[in-house]
# Entry
Amino acid sequence: MKKSKYDTSYKEMSKISDTKKAENLIRNHKRKIIYITFLILIILLFSLPFIYHNYMESKKTDSENISQYIEKLGKEFYENYYYPQLKDLQANHMIEDRTTFLKNFETTGIPVTLNRVIELRFKTEKEINRYLRNYQCDFKTTGFTVYPKSPYEKKSYQLEPHIVCQNLDLEKEED
# Structure
């Protein structure tokens, strides 16, 4: 039996279309790989800062963590409690001028202990112990001193933490 011209051209066309299908499959597969690689790189790019931040946080010593917490507490206390209280005192004519009042504490500072923070109901003992429970800190002496600075506004001050804790060796960690 003789092969017809139609049979050979059909087979050739079939081979060509199979080749094109294969090329399209390969091209589509390469595109998918490129898209997936690009997506992974974007996810990695966005997650690296978080990974780095968490790594650096875990590297901090106990004294750095406690000091950072006390400074944060002092910042919140001064900006969200103490300074607005002065505004109210001035409005009620209990102090003449907020600037003059704060100027008096520029060098001596305003000492605040953890007990005082609790007494003023700014934070509860439970909230503070969430951060300090492992270190048995003395609430009578642990705290911070706020040094108001000119122009004596809400965010113009310097804060100095005071930490007295039993399970924390500050001298060893400073070396």
Q: What stands out?
A: The chain has six helices and three strands. The longest strand covers residues 143-148. Residues 5-59 form the longest helix (55 residues). Residues 170-175 have pLDDT under 50 and may be disordered.
